[in-house]
Amino acid sequence: MKYFFLYLMSAFFIFAGISHFTTPKMFVGIVPKFLPYPLELVHISGVCEILFAILLAIPTTRHIGAWLLILLLIAVFPANIQMAITFYQEHNPYLWVTILRLPLQFALIWWAWIYTKM
């Protein structure tokens, strides 16, 4: 069962990384305003998600893939905060989703951390 969740996590991040290229506008909108080159940052984070997910799926690189995903999740956390702020300012009815997404980031970090020991 632990391998099911491992490969589920890997597939989740590959899909998320691909979505950075298929729907970049959504991601550009949540890049914090103080960061330059938002589209390029979206593409870079998408490549990282795909690459790190692949590393996670391979037994010999699983440890480093898990740690890299943890670092990536920490690095993109400001985008989740920016999304919540933007939704609040725009009175978006889905603000609650962005608020629930914040602790989800910590759950994803914990999930990746499990695989640092495999």
Brief overview:
The protein is mainly alpha-helical and 118 residues long. It has helices at 2-22, 24-28, 38-57, 62-75, 77-89, 95-114. It has one domain.
Any overview of this molecule?
The chain has 118 residues and is an all-alpha fold. The chain has one domain. The protein has six helices and no strands. It is globular, with a radius of gyration of 15 Å. The model has no long low-confidence stretch (mean pLDDT 96).
SSE inventory with pairings:
Blueprint: H1 2-22, H2 24-28, H3 38-57, H4 62-75, H5 77-89, H6 95-114
Helix pairs in contact: 1-3, 3-4, 4-6, 5-6
What value does the Rg take, in angstroms?
Answer: 15 Å
Helix share bin: over 70%
Order of helices and strands: HHHHHH
Quaternary state of the chains = single chain
Total number of distinct structural domains: 1
Low-confidence sequence ranges? none
Specify the number of helices.
6
- Secondary-structure-based class equals mainly alpha
> Describe the biggest sheet?
none
Shape: globular
Cα(first) to Cα(last) distance is 14 Å
Strand content: under 5%
Calculate the mean pLDDT score and round it.
96
Task: Supply database-style keywords.
118 residues, 6 helices, single chain, mainly alpha, 0% strand
